[in-house]
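SEVERITY: medium
COMPONENT: batch folding queue
REPORTER: lab tech (J.R.)

DESCRIPTION
The queue accepted two submissions in a row. Attaching both inputs and their returned structure tokens so the on-call engineer can compare them side by side.

ATTACHMENT 1
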Amino acid sequence: MDFQLNDFQRALESSVREFVEREVIPVASEFEHKDEYPHPLVDRMKELGYFGAVIPEENGGAGMDALGFAVLTEELARGWMSLTGVIGSHSMVAWMVARFGSDDQKRDWLPKLASGEMRTGIGITESGGGSDVAALRTTARREGNEYVVNGSKMFVTNSEHATHFGVMVRTNTSADKPHRGISCLMMDRELGGLQVSRHLDKLGYKGIRTGELVFEECRAPAPCLVGEENRGFQQLMATLELGRIQVAARALGLHRACFEASVKYAQQRHTMGKPIAEHQAVQLKLADMATSLDAARQLTYRAAAMKDSGERCDIEAGMAKLFATDAAQRASELAIHIHGGYGYIKELPIERYYRDAILLQVGEGANDIQRVVIARRLVEKYPAD
């Protein structure tokens, strides 16, 4: 496959890089250390059209393909990984609406999602389910022209600032297989019975709010159903292919930030009469960081190219997410070792890279779960004679 960026993607890469250099990097540490929501940066992202990244142009969006979205994500993550969360789950819900929504939903919602007037989080994970989506317990029973929702969702990004949530619910409690009774509802946060019960204090991923949603006899209008009733699991799996590509791209940006900071510092810091970049122990670390970064990018771009061609890419997206996030976490460790004591203090962003990298291994399907899913699909793909 040819993974070369086209002219649009190169222009996108350049413009996002300029935004990050001029406006994100100078203020990211201040927002992060205060755990303060970056309203000025989010407003600029609206102006730049990032909220409409994956929304078709005819609906007011930028019409980016998966590879373009990965490029946007990598550049943002290089400056501050939390910003990719602001548009991450939002873009997943927007993509689901664009792909599976009704004509009325596309007409009414997509332009507002593209402008950032509507902003979304996605409710998938539950406290007792983790990565087992098919085991979700939040229910939605149909009563007339409404769904009555009961249950809860954990680890919902954008919980404080989203206007709506794409919520995965069980609409058929008697389905012969658990995944066959799941649907997606687009729920307004102002609905009675929907409460953001608490905000979660995290190790990293600061500045962006992550919370828990609780539903108690919450009545949602039936037209908020996205796609077909009881087909939400299939819709979600297609969406998560893009989601895992985006998480892999977040890891690329964070990994690149670690490498660029380390290779620069290694040439500036002197010990024993020479730059530490001339010491073999440091050279080995730099070589490993650069090699794993290139390998992670190839896996991510391959998955994105397959997604753009319409091919099923759950294995490839899972591989990209698994490898890229593990590589980013290792790169953040190596960056701390190269920087020594300075890598451990908050004057430099190195310690932030370490804290943020761990989330990428856990979120969007924990990496050990990715390994299991990849292995199962490989057995299906390559059956024994």
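ATTACHMENT 2
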Amino acid sequence: MLVTTVVLALICPEPVAQECPLQGSATAPAPAAVASPSTGAIGSAIQLTFGEQFVKAGESYISPDGKKVIFQAVEVPAEGEQPADIYAMYLGDLHHQNGSWRLDNVKQLTPEGSANTCGWFHPTDPNKVIFASTVTEPAGGDVPGYQRGSGKYKWSYPPRMRIVEARIDGVFPPALRPLEGDTEFYQAECSISPDGRHLLYTSHETGDGDIYIRDMKTGARHLVVGVPGYDGGPFFSPDGKRIAYRSDRNNDNLLQVFVGELAFDDAGTMVGLDEEIQLTNNEHVNWAPFWHPDNSRLVYATSEAGHDNYEVYEIQARQGGGVGKPARYGTGKRRVTNVAGFDGLPAFNADGTIMIWTSQQGGDGSQLWIAPFDVDQTKTAAGECPVAH
């Protein structure tokens, strides 16, 4: 299938940061959350996980009903022991009261000693989650992931991971049922289409990071993005017609954000891409794109503010909708977070009013934070591009 790639240059000026007062505090047995400087795109940030329990926590997603959070973390070890160098998967109850949030009843989903990543809630079965796991203790050392061990930016992971599913309405830790992969290769970075039919994921079975789709109704499997370089972190758009992902195909120690418009056969199976649109094209690392539920924009992490200060940005990704509704790809960029240290891996609740992400603000290491998201905040006087609706 011939896929057209469109590259877009970003010309929107960077917005001016503003201070945002704290509206509440986290109710958890840990230090009080602190106010964080904001760009106006988000309200006051509240810390959900703390260094008293986790050395680090990250990559979190909110359940469709807004009541639970799945995330990966490294627990604080017993006195005299070293923390694990691999992540376990956790599930917690999310509560909102009097303008504040808290996460409690946190339970470990995964077997002790296993390496895990990339959790996701099933969109049509509220009692099911998926994630990637070694299931047992990893054999051998980790291998470099991004950049294959070269360059300044890289992460490592066990070389053999499979995608599993688990029910969360029974005993903990739950039984893990294999969903995709056989632990011969790294297969992870998974999500499910809004209708629950298609599984989207990254596989290293060719020695390169490529994106695949499995039709779980028919069993058909298709390579969707297979260009040289690591293509990964894919997510379906809210309408299930597009995917967003990041790619290092330029082999320049950078990552760029792409959107692919999906192609379907007559039976409704996703078989590839009709068109590929490059949203970022700069000298920075841009990754972890995530769709806003309005289907017209993405948030993502980028090193634009500095290589030791990743921040979350928003960018337009709207398809054309006929007369008076032209496509808006790569425009309307605005900065969402504005604090020292890492901010990334953003995600939304079902209606897009809340953003959850991983942040190093507060001096407590990498932890989960949450804040109201203002989708209509468009202050051109402050240097932001208008947001198209």
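NOTES FROM REPORTER
The chain has one domain: 4-382.
No errors were logged for either attachment.
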